[in-house]
C-alpha cells in the first residue's frame, strides 16, 4: 500500500469527522448514544469530544430514533436560523416517522400542533397570539406578586424536618403558580393540575409495559384541557387562555391547535423552569463562595442567572428540525426528512465562544448564550423565565441561610428526559435557627 493511500485508521477518522476525501463511498458512522445515567449526570465531556471532532454527528436516542446533532456555538446559531430547516412533523421521512411519534395515534395530532411544530406562516400567526402575555414590561410589573408567591412557599416549608427537598417543596410548585397567574388559569383549575401529566412528552412504545399508564395520563390531560377550554368559554376574562379560546371561536385556530397551545403552555411553561431552578442550585451548591456572594450582593443576580443558564441549561437539546430535500449542513450531506437537533448545552460550553466554559463566572461578559434558542423559535417566555429564576434564587438564598446539600452529589437523581436537564430531588439543609419564618 502506498504511503499516500488511506489506511483503515484514516478511513475511520474520515467517517467520524465526516470528511469528504477520498471520493469513495463511505459507510455511515455508528451513531453516538445519547442516553444512560452517566450521560444524563454529566454530558459535557461527550459534548466536548464531539465539538472537537466536528460540528455535526449522527446520534442515537433511547427510543431508537437516529438524528443529526449539531454541537458548536456558531454551527448551532446558524442551524437555528437556517430557513431550510422546518419544524413541522410532516417533513419527517419514513425512517424517522417509524420510531419518533411522541404521542400514540390517534391522539398524536390532537396535542402536537403547537408552536414548536409549526413553520411560517402558521407559526407567525400562532406566536402573535401569545407574545403580549410574556412581554418583558408586563412580566416585570408582576415581579412583586411573584416574590410574594416565593415567600409564601418558603414560609410553608416543613418546620421540624432536618432536611428539605427543594424540588417537591419549591421548584416544582413556584413555576406553576407563576404560570397560572400569567396565563389566567383560575385557582379552581390550577389546583387540579397534575405535574405528572407533563410526562406524556416522553415516548412510550406500543409494547412497553408502561403503555397503559401512559395512555391513562394522556387521557387525563386531554380531559383537563377540555375543562379549561369550557371554563374559559363560560367565564371569559382578559387572560391569555381566554384570548386563545376566543381565537378558536373566531376561526383563527382549529380545536387541535387550541388544545396543543394550551398543552404547550402548561408543560413547556412550567417544567423547564422547575428544572432550571434545580440545575442552578446544583451549580451554586458546588460553589459555596459564589452562593455566598449572590446572597450578600443580590444586585448581581440578573447577571448570575444568565451565567447559570449558559453553564447548564434545562433545555439540553432542541426538538426536531427537517430538511425538505437532501442538502449540505455544516459540510455533511443530510438526507431530506432526517431529524436535526441542536445541543444548546454543547453550544453554551463552546470554548471558541466562551473562554474557560466549564467555570461558573458571574462576572463573565454576557453574550449570546443559546439557553432560550435562537431565530424564529426563540422561547417566547424567556423574559418570564428570567424573572422567575431571579426571584426564586433570590428568595432561596436570602431566606435559607447556610444553604447546603444534604446528600452527596452522586446521589442526586438526574431526570431521564431526552431533551431536558434537571434533578427530580434536591435534599438540602440550612440554619433553621436563623429562619424566624420557620419558628414554632
TrEMBL record:
One family name in Pfam for this protein? p450
Please tell me whether the keyword Heme is annotated for this protein.
Answer: yes
Q: Which UniProt keywords apply?
A: Heme, Iron, Metal-binding, Monooxygenase, Oxidoreductase
**InterPro entries the UniProt entry points to:** Cyt_P450, Cyt_P450_B, Cyt_P450_CS, Cyt_P450_sf
CDD domains assigned: CYP107-like
What's the family? Belongs to the cytochrome P450 family.
Q: Matching PANTHER family, A to Z?
A: CYTOCHROME P450 YJIB-RELATED, P450, PUTATIVE (EUROFUNG)-RELATED
What's this protein's name?
Cytochrome P450
Organism of provenance: Streptomyces orinoci
Amino acid at each position: 500500500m502506498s504511503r499516500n493511500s488511506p489506511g483503515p485508521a484514516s478511513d475511520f477518522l474520515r467517517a467520524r469527522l465526516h470528511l469528504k476525501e477520498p471520493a469513495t463511498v463511505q459507510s455511515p458512522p455508528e451513531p453516538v448514544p445519547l442516553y444512560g445515567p452517566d450521560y444524563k449526570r454529566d454530558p459535557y465531556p461527550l459534548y466536548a469530544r464531539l465539538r472537537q471532532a466536528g460540528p455535526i454527528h449522527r446520534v442515537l436516542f433511547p427510543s431508537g430514533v437516529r438524528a443529526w446533532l449539531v454541537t458548536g456555538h456558531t454551527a448551532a446559531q446558524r442551524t437555528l436560523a437556517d430557513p431550510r430547516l422546518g419544524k413541522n412533523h410532516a417533513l419527517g421521512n419514513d425512517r424517522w416517522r417509524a420510531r419518533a411519534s411522541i404521542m400514540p395515534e390517534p391522539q398524536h395530532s390532537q396535542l402536537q400542533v403547537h408552536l414548536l411544530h409549526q413553520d411560517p406562516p402558521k407559526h407567525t400567526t400562532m406566536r402573535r397570539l401569545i407574545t403580549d402575555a410574556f412581554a418583558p414590561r408586563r412580566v416585570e410589573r408582576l415581579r412583586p406578586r411573584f416574590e410574594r408567591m416565593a415567600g409564601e412557599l418558603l414560609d410553608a416549608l416543613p418546620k421540624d424536618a432536618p432536611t428539605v427537598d427543594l424540588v417537591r417543596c419549591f421548584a416544582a410548585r413556584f413555576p406553576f403558580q407563576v404560570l397560572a397567574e400569567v396565563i389566567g388559569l383560575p385557582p379552581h383549575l390550577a389546583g387540579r393540575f397534575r405535574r405528572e401529566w407533563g410526562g406524556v412528552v416522553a415516548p412510550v412504545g406500543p409494547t412497553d409495559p408502561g403503555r397503559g399508564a401512559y395512555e391513562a395520563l394522556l387521557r387525563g390531560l386531554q380531559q383537563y384541557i377540555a375543562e379549561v377550554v369550557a371554563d374559559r368559554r363560560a367565564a371569559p376574562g382578559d387572560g391569555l387562555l381566554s384570548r386563545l379560546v376566543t381565537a378558536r371561536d373566531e376561526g383563527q385556530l382549529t380545536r387541535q391547535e387550541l388544545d396543543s397551545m394550551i398543552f404547550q403552555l402548561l408543560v413547556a411553561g412550567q417544567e423547564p423552569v422547575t428544572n432550571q431552578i434545580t440545575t442552578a442550585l446544583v451549580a451554586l451548591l458546588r460553589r459555596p463562595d459564589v452562593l455566598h456572594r449572590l446572597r450578600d450582593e443580590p444586585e448581581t443576580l440578573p447577571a448570575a442567572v444568565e451565567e447559570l443558564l449558559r453553564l447548564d441549561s434545562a433545555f439540553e437539546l432542541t426538538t426536531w428540525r427537517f430538511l425538505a430535500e437532501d442538502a449540505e449542513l455544516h459540510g455533511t450531506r443530510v438526507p431530506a426528512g432526517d431529524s436535526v437537533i441542536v445541543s444548546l448545552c454543547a453550544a453554551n460550553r463552546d470554548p471558541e465562544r466562551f473562554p474557560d466554559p466549564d467555570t461558573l463566572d458571574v462576572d463573565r461578559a454576557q453574550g449570546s448564550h443559546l439557553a432560550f434558542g435562537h431565530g424564529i423559535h426563540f422561547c417566547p417566555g424567556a423574559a418570564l423565565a428570567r424573572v422567575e429564576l431571579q426571584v426564586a434564587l433570590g428568595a432561596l438564598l436570602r431566606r435559607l441561610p447556610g444553604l447546603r446539600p444534604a446528600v452527596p452529589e452522586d446521589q442526586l437523581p438526574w431526570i431521564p428526559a431526552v431533551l431536558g436537564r434537571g434533578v427530580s430531588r434536591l435534599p438540602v439543609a440550612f440554619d433553621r435557627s436563623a429562619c424566624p419564618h420557620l419558628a414554632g
